[in-house]
Description:
Elements: H1 2-44, E1 46-49, H2 55-62, H3 66-75, H4 88-97, E2 101-104, H5 107-115, E3 125-126, E4 130-135, H6 141-152, H7 161-165, E5 167-171, E6 177-181, H8 186-194, E7 202-208, H9 215-226, E8 230-236, H10 245-254, E9 268-270, H11 279-293, E10 296-297, E11 304-313, E12 317-326, E13 329-330, E14 334-337, E15 340-348, E16 354-355, E17 357-358, E18 362-369, E19 378-381, H12 385-405, H13 415-420, E20 426-433, H14 436-447, E21 455-463, H15 468-477, E22 479-484, H16 490-499, E23 503-506, H17 509-521, E24 528-544, E25 548-561, E26 565-570, E27 573-585, E28 588-589, E29 592-594, E30 598-603, E31 614-622, H18 627-634
Parallel strand pairs: 1-2, 4-6, 4-7, 7-8, 8-9, 20-21, 20-22, 22-23
Antiparallel strand pairs: 3-10, 5-6, 11-12, 11-19, 12-18, 13-17, 14-15, 14-19, 15-16, 15-18, 24-25, 24-31, 25-29, 25-30, 26-27, 26-31, 27-28, 27-30
Helix pairs in contact: 2-3, 8-15, 14-17, 15-16
Amino acid sequence: MKETLQKMQSSETVGSKRQKRRRQRKEEREEEEQLQQELEELEDQVIEATEFITVSDLAELMDVQANDVITTCMDLGMMVSINQRLDASTIELVAEEYGYEVEFIDADEAIEEIELEEDDPEDLQPRAPIITVMGHVDHGKTSLLDYIRKSQVAEGEAGGITQHVGAYEVTTDDGRPITFLDTPGHEAFTAMRSRGAQATDIVILVVAADDAVMPQTIEAINHAKAAGVSIIVAINKMDKPGANPDKIKQQLAEHDVIVEEYGGTNQVAEVSAKTGEGIPDLLEKVLIESELMELKANPDRNADGVVLEARVDKGKGIVSNILVQNGTLEVGDPFVAGPCFGRVRAMENEHGERIESAGPSTPLQLTGFDDIPQAGDKLVVLDDEKKAKEIANQRQQIKREQELRQSKHMSLDDLSRRLALGEIEDLNIIIKADVDGSIEALSGALQKLSNEEVSVNIIHTGAGAITESDVLLASASEAIIIGFQVRPTSNARKVAEEEEIDIRLFSVIYDAVDEVKDAMEGMLSPEISERLYGNAEVREIFKVSSVGTIAGCYVTDGKINRNNPVRVVRDGVVIYDGEIDALKRFKDDVKEVKSGYECGISIVNYNDIKVGDVIENYEVVEERRSLEDVQSDED
């Protein structure tokens, strides 16, 4: 009996345990299903949209009537029509009213995600490395390229290559190909990078052995580093008597380009573009570097590449130089490049010969665009011509809206707002000053402003005027330019206006530091600002014993006003700041002189004016803050 009772009790215990386990499993499963349901509901509450979508598109995404969205906008104080495009803040506001969160995606990215499928590693094949040669003027970039081209390309094919495609392929003695991009300089390299086109794998930095690391060399280093590209140093002119490669290596180390023999990672080749000494060694190093990078592409797929440059040819129409990066481009393929659509009508290689197809790392000249693309635009081949046209039209619409309504780059005025939104972690700054000492003092003072939220990152410094190249680097790197006792060139000023780059000019270091600090703390006041009134170029000097020096000037732009302060700028550097003593047209005293007219200017207590100086006339503008500004400060 005891045994029987014991068995009965033990079976009951086992059964209850089993039931308990079942119940637990059921509860866990229910919890998991509930959690999954909640996640799905949350996902349903997030909509992906591009900026500047229309009211009808937004209504479709939220699955509501377009009239309801228009009513919501009217309730928020905005009058909109069904086809009106909305900016980011309005889209977020309207979506919030319907209980949705908005995740903004770039139109180009959304399209490219659809088009560029991942390659299977088994399909990838090695491709030629793509090289850009950079360096200072007169250090032998062109000579080096010419020697490589003549020695590595078959005779009779070398003539006119650079002019034809802007890139060419050379083959080393052991039969391995290398593609060289012959860009017009750092500006083109940066202009392409500013549009997101990483066409270059390796940069060859050319430095003359009988010279030193010069401003443009430093600029080239900064451009290559900002693009995250490997640098191989070519120390040129080794055949000259004064060649000192060790000095060059030490100077490069100061700019964080440390060669292998000094324990760094950058390869170096000592070459002579005149005699050809060391050039096979340089090409070998390029191939070693590319092998380490494991550069591969899949030739058996739709092609994609990058536009190097484009022009209108009288006989052929729009002609563009293309570098194929992946896949194989064939005659007849429909493609999209930025906002442009096209079909490959004809292709020519660097020798001007017609070709039917082009694989990865192949430079070519392509005919068939419907509009002129920009350097750096990504070219993507699609199977469906209709879809390609739709994508190009969509990009054109968005581009037009963005040009009309979007401020592209950061300025000090909106720094604190963007910091608060968590949009930026690094404040990139380019410093240009009159002398090196000022640069060191200013960069040191600005770097001390780094804090937990934002780090001040100085990406480029240089002595002399602010050039077009500086503005393009700022555009590519979302940087602010600070000029100390220097001025932008007229070209740089125009590009800065087009690209909406913030250039701040100072004559006292502490003012520059305080302004950046105030911007970071959100206290920047735009109440008092300087506005350029006009520029006059000194063409003749007249010395009058009773008056002093009178500058015979031609007003190049704007107006010269007698009551405004002036600066004397020589070679882009400010050498005097003062007031006009007298402003004359012929023998008459005048209040102002307009652009295109000549005048005589004398400056109070300053006679050291020279022919070629620029007299900059500016005014200090005191702007009243609007109610909106005060309100935003209180918020």
